[in-house]
Amino acid sequence: MNTRHALVDTTLGMFTIVATDGAITGLYFPYHVRRPEPETFGPETGLEDDALLAEAAEQIHGYLAGARQEFDLPLDAAGDAFQHEVWSIVAEIPFGETTTYGAIAERLGDKSLAYRVGQAVGANPLCIFVPCHRVLGVNSKLTGYAGGLKRKQALLELEEPAQASARRLF
Predict the structure, then answer these.
(1) Is 127 marked active-site?
(2) Catalytic residue among 77, 127, 130, 132
(3) Tell me, what's the pLDDT at 7?
(4) Which end of the chain has the least Cβ crowding within 10 Å, N or C?
(5) CA-CA distances (angstroms) from residue 164 to 22, 52, 97, 113, 134?
(6) CA-CA distance, 96 to 157, in Å (whole number)?
(7) What does the pLDDT average to over 70-86?
C-alpha cells in the first residue's frame, strides 16, 4: 500500500488530504474530531509530486471559491457496513440542500437509528468530499461537525442559494 498525504492551505484553514494507492482516503482539519494519528497518513508529499493529491487540492479550492459544486475523485473511506451505508446516503445530498440524522435513519428503515446515524456521520473520514456538513439535527439545528461548528456554518453559507442569503440581510 502506498499511503501518503499533503497539506493544503485553504480559506477554512489547513487541510490534510490522505491518499492510499489510487484513492483519497481522508480529509482532515488540524483539530479534527476523531483525527487519526499522523503516522497513519504516510509520508508527506508535495502536490507537484502526486497527481491525485494535486487534483483533490484543486477541487477543494474550486469548491471553496464557489466554482465547483461536486467532486470527481476516487474515494475509499475505511469503515464498517453501516457507516458505508450512511455515507452513501450523505454523498447523495445535493449541493445547497440539507437533511437530518432522523431523515437518514428513516431512509434506513428505522427512525430509532438516528443516534447511530450521527455516530457514522461523525466518523466520516472524507468530510466535504462526502458532505456531512449537510446533515443537521432535529428542527435543522446546527450540531456537531468534525471541523467545528464555525466551519460547518461557513460551508452551509457557501452553498446557500443567493435568495436565501439575501433574505438573511433584512
Answers:
(1) no
(2) 132
(3) 97
(4) C
(5) 39, 35, 12, 31, 16
(6) 9
(7) 96
